[in-house]
Amino acid sequence: MNPRVQREIADYSAERWIAIHCDKTDDRGRKLLVRYSRKTRKPLKVKEPSDILRLMETFQRLMPRSIYATANLYGKLESEDDVAFIDNVIACTPTWDIDNELGAWEATREAAKEIVKFLAENGVSESVYVKFTGRGAHVQVHPYAFSPEVRAKHNPLDLAYALVEYIRGKLQPRFIELAVRLKAESLRVDNEMDFQRLFVCPLSVHKQLNMVSVCLDPERLDDFTPEEARLGRVKRHWEGWRNHRVGEADALAVKAYNLVGGYPGTYGKPRRRKHPPLEKQIWSFLQKVEED
User: Fold this and answer.
1) Which of 93, 148, 92, 130 is nearest to 221 (CA)?
2) What tens digit of pLDDT does each residue of 162-178 get?
3) What's the pTM value of the predicted model, to 2 decimals?
4) Considering only Cβ atoms within 10 Å of each terminal Cβ, which end of the chain, N or C, has fewer?
5) What domains can be seen in the chain, in order of their start residue?
6) Beta-carbon neighbour count of residue 266 at 10 Å?
């Protein structure tokens, strides 16, 4: 495995609970997702680049393909209990999950730019990066853009959930406008922040497509095309995802928390959605209007 790939995945995965998506399937034909060591049942983790290759070799028979890591960062990862209690979460990565078809990258990019712009207009610009996931995109804020003081006062997952939901709600009309104008019916911006949420690691292969997840400079999104992230032909990856300013997101996150509230599910058991996502309701309405 390429040393740079090992380093990027290891650095991103530090303090996170990781998982390995495999091509091997279970009895029902579902691809396996490995989150614990086979013998000790310890949550999988990475401390240094060499751990990546070791994990690939350990689970070789399962045909490992992609590496994912939690939005949460943990104080310790030595037992199953360490990922079962919220008190062990020391930080969390706010993530706007932009889901779309690969061929509709323009709409995905424009949605990401709207989020980046809103963050910058509200004082968060030095701790933001965009990750092409292999199909859609993630806009992420560095977990330590929340200061230790704010994270001590509010649970990090609550802060991350509130920030994502607040901005998603503010920009929802714009996302719908983009979907209609660019004919991107599959465009969806979700708040996937929950107790054990996984997101693909930088320079990891997509779990289905022959594409690679790469980080992008939010100020140069127009320069990127998905062709630059083809497996075996990656031409662009921004290592500036590490950049952040401690406390930069405090004010906006606390404002969002006061308006939206924290994570709505019980920790470990998020609530089920009772109604279709708002964007699906609006899209259906617009289609009916056009038909009439």
Assistant:
1) 130
2) 999 999 999 999 999 99
3) 0.89
4) C
5) 3-287 (3.30.70.3300)
6) 9
